[in-house]
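Please predict the structure of the following assembly.
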Amino acid sequence: MIQISNLGHKIGGTQILHDISTSFPKGKLTALIGPNGAGKSTLLRLVGRLEPLQQGAITVAGHDVARTPTADLARVMAILGQQTAVASRLRLCELVAFGRWPHHQGRPRPEDRTKVAQAIDAFALSKLKNRFLDEVSGGQAQRAHIAMAFAQDTEWLLLDEPLNNLDMAHARALMARLRDLVDRQGRSVGLVVHEINYAAAWADHVIAMKDGRIMAEGTPDDVLTEAVLSDLYDAPISVGRHKDRPLVLHHA
Amino acid sequence: MRRMPALLSALIALMLASLTVGAAHVDLRDIFSDDRAMLVLLESRLPRTVAVALTGAALSVAGVLIQALVRNRFVGPDTVGTAEGAALGLLGVTILFPASPLWVRMIAASLAAMVTTWLFLGVIRRLPAREVMLIPIAGLVLSGVLGSVVTFIGWQTDLMQYVGTWLLSGEFSGVIAGRYELLWVAAGAAGLAWFAADRFAILGLGEQVATGLGLSTASVMRLGLAVVSVVTAMVVTTVGMIPFVGLVVPNLVSRVMGDNLRASLPVVALSGAVLVLACDLVGRLVIYPYEVPAGMILGILGAALFLWLLHRRPAHG
Ligand SMILES: Nc1ncnc2c1ncn2[C@@H]1O[C@H](COP(=O)(O)OP(=O)(O)OP(=O)(O)O)[C@@H](O)[C@H]1O
Ligand SMILES: [Mg+2]
């Protein structure tokens, strides 16, 4: 479980997060939703210790994020930030291979190579693996970054808008992979999504944020309702049903 | 990997050429029967050749590191204030403790270079990340300011001729046995970087990715800072700053083989040695038996290479 208690955060005098207490359940796929600027990325970055904690406490699988050495945390959680643009000229396979670095610190074992090969395969990168990062498309680079986080093979996987740049087929394939990680390998996943229907279709747990606060949390059926969503996005939103799950309709 | 043998052959050929070229005639075939030739070889030619190779290799590696630290390809140890910092340190020691031994000067130069490079890193932290060209510009401004300070103090204290040898014309004609060995320290520092090559490559992916992979970014930054400063300080102390190598060589190698530093650093080091050796040789031949400083040749060749780099389209791998 990821436990967040009384989390507050300021950037340059502005309060970005207001006294947030919540949790990401273990063994579930949790979706973080909310309008632009709600504070989703900030929350995820704090959990992933990409930003120093100012106020409150966060534990990931029992590890206090503020106290645990960053190298140890890297074997417990993998985090993919929202900005994945890098200036490095690495081949895709080299990038993915760095996902194993927390486990071998520079001396890869056979199992590390296997995990890298699996990740490359899982994200359909085999044909591209010898290309340089600056010579592939945005979606292909994004898939390489996700594959790196996958190769890290941690109990927790945190992804900030992983569907960015992905076409519909690759987006669905990614969600199916995440589901598989949760259902068959007992992993836990937290991700930020803007396309609500991905949360509706694949998530176990939804956390809705607005203006640095949590507006609602619970199962998709509880959170993805017309009342909550209309309030969350300040726009009338209708919700239908499809295959026994909410289906959010944006053409009003 | 076929690059290494090719580069090694080039290195050996250039080193042999460097051993034979010079005002005094030396025939490598009869050095064992000719005492004078042996003396020239051991006291002058060999030290010079080794000094040139070490300088090129170490500066190129330092270039890779500073580029990884600031995540920008348009900087080198000669454009971010490191060399001027080393000169400032040397100047300070020369003024305050004129009789200080070499190792004191070396430490002072290294520490001062660390301080100014650290200053540069602090300055660019506050720049907007999207403005890529601001980083090299900030470096040029900083080295310009520091250079003026050094020059000013140099004038005031009548030490301009020293300042000139440190910063203006990097050249190897004064290298003799006993006067270049500090460069081995530079090479050692650069070699140390290879053991942390993965860490520098990960740091190059950005603070966010690096932290996510469990890297302690601050300690990798410190190591990089130390290596860049020590390399630069040793070069400034012994032969004077050599421009462009630390900028051009990392770019050329990255174009061809990417930024997997564990694989590319040896190639970077060899290429740097080859480039500076070639420039030094050209400088010794163009107006034979006189010399043009290698730094000047590099200035011309380096600028041309760099322009070519900027205009070449990225090759598909
Ligand atoms: N570096 C910064 N300086 C100042 N304000 C910032 C900075 N980064 C974020 N903010 C502000 O913090 C708030 C939360 O930002 P955050 O990136 O967490 O939002 P988000 O929910 O991820 O939005 P999006 O859906 O657009 O990614 C926003 O109002 C944003 O303007
Ligand atoms: Mg965001």
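The pocket of magnesium ion (ligand 2) is lined by residues A 40-41, 82, 160 (CB under 6 Å). Residues 229 and 237 of chain A are 6 Å apart (CA to CA).
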